[in-house]
Amino acid sequence: xxxxxxxxxxxxxxxFLGACLTSFALWFLAGAGISMLKNFFFWHEVARLSAxxxxxxxxxxxxxxxxxxxxxxxxxxxxxxxAFSLLITPEGEERVLFAKNQNRxxxxxxxxxxxxxxxxxxxxxxxxxxxxxxxxIAQEGDxxxxxxxxxxxxxxxxxxxxxxxxxxxxxxLAEHMGQEQFIGRMNNRxxxxxxxxxxxxxxxxxxxxDPEILPNLSSAGDLAELAVFVKQNYPEVFNILxxxxxxPYVNTNEFVRSNGWHTKVxxxxxxxxxxxxxxxxxxxxxxxxxxxxxxxxxxxxNRFREMQELVDxxxxxxxx
Length: 320
Known about the structure:
By secondary structure, this protein is α+β, with helices and mostly antiparallel strands. Helix content is 45%, strand content 18%. The protein contains 11 helices and 13 strands. The protein has a 5-stranded antiparallel beta sheet with strand order 3-2-12-11-10, sandwiched between helices. Strand 11 and strand 12 form a beta hairpin. The relative contact order is 0.16. The N terminus is likely disordered.
């Protein structure tokens, strides 16, 4: 009987010790952060593959599961209200590289004009002629150098709309259909694309004069999905957005002229109002040609500096 009791004591001690070790392991992983956990699963997958694969096959399979966070890599301290970085692989798969408040609904300023361009191309087509009215010219700002009575095709008016973020161009495109109907189509398109945190009250992104009216709103996650859809279905939009300049129009996105990265900039869109602060979407080819990365910054004091930090992280904080 004494021996049986001793065995029971030993068994209880083992259970207690095992519970302590398990609790410690979970505490350690939580304290070390998600990147360590990801790294654990990455090397676990490496071990599994290496046991059943040749060297060449293993190399190819490892390329598929990358990128993975580097051990000990410290995520950037992004001061913007929201930031999001999304990898789109050549197979069309999506992988989140960084996320801060990606679902928070925030004012988006002229990032609105991505939807304005999309609705214009879907509703009118690129060759439709657009008359520029005095009311369109009366919009805040004089970007785009448009003239009252001027007639331009949708394709032509996209250049001032996207490069110089012309509010006049946005108003002219909306007026051709009727502004209320055009805004209705913008909101309907957001619904069909399942951009559930996105809503529009105007085609240009200006803060409403009435403080009781909410501005155009979206989230970093929604905007990334919108950018992916536009790039895949209307590549001419990003063919414009990647240009440093075109004729008299100069791109407001300084990254298309100079950047310190080894990958190619594929275009982007800027935005800035009092309510929205600095906003920026930037698409870049990923390291090692693993697709492209959509980066979004919302509510930034310095949108270009914040974007620089975000992109540096996606390049340097991962094993590609």
